[in-house]
Amino acid sequence: xxxxxxLRIAFITASMTSLFFVPWILVKAWILPLPDTVQEQxxxxxxxxxxxxxxxxxxxxxxxxxxxxxxxxxxxxxxxNPHALFKIASITKLYVAVAxxxxxxxxxxSLDKTLADYFPELxxxxxxxxxxxxxxMVQHRSGIPNFVDHPxxxxxxxENKRETLEYAxxxxxxxxxxxxxxxxxxxxxxxxxxxxxxxxxxxxxxIKEEILIxxxxxNTFGSIVEVDLDDVMSGYYVGIEADMKTENSGLMIATAQxxxxxxxxxxxxxxxxxxxxxxxxxxxxxxxxxxxxxxxSLAEYHKDIDTVVIQFMNTTNFDGYNWNLSEIVINRITRxxxxxxxx
Length: 343
What we know:
By secondary structure, the protein is α+β, with helices and mostly antiparallel strands. It has eleven helices and eleven strands. The chain has helices at 3-31, 38-46, 92-105, 115-118, 134-138, 161-166, 185-199, 203-212, 256-268, 276-281, 321-342, and strands at residues 52-59, 65-73, 78-79, 86-87, 220-221, 236-237, 253-254, 288-292, 295-302, 307-313, 315-316. The longest helix has 29 residues, at 3-31.
């Protein structure tokens, strides 16, 4: 039985179990007295069932701070490493949105051109292809179904991007283009393919040239195939013993510090050339989260205290409570930082 097939069974079991146990876990995490330090909060979070955790904090005017607890590798009892590589999942969308912005500013892409203009072969396979603009795709206002929501996605996992896209084709639109918001990974898969098409090489290489190299992000990579697996923090799904780090999601890998440097550059505008930030601000957001098998991450910037907080946790389940726990934990970390700032 494959790992993904085992996981599908685990998802169903965990979801049923969560009906009885999740609320109390969340309530406990929320009402515990707030610790005095970020490190104490990180230690406390491990007690909620996370295998390992990395937190990076960049407060303006201070040296960056790193906090860890738990395991980098549970099986081999290797402690969490603040400089480990991590699958950042949908945080990747921030980089893709910046890359899109740069191509729009260079007039190589147009936010007002349609999916039909860029991918005529998808007309008739994605509803409203002639009405869905690139702007709508960036903003998740296209109505294109999310491939992970297809009922067969976990039963018959796709082997490549072509098969992944098939799970979003020939389906009714979720809503009329521009009339609603619906988060869809399909949007960004198509945008990544569009960047490949326009620049003539991989969007990962374009992101490297236009974002990673200028910001000196030497510990950020396009996918797991580019790195030494020993440098990647292990990832776990609740109830499954297997290490998920060998699963190739095709999304970016980075250290917490590199994500933090990028997030500050995004928010202070230094990632942009002249005229680009105005475009970006009109189409996408300035912080993000990521969730993939074994890995969940949050990248936040808090303007009131001029602070970047990056949180990596290497334990997931898809019934929601681990994700909710991670949000509670980062909120508590931010409260600690805000309290110290005001004292």
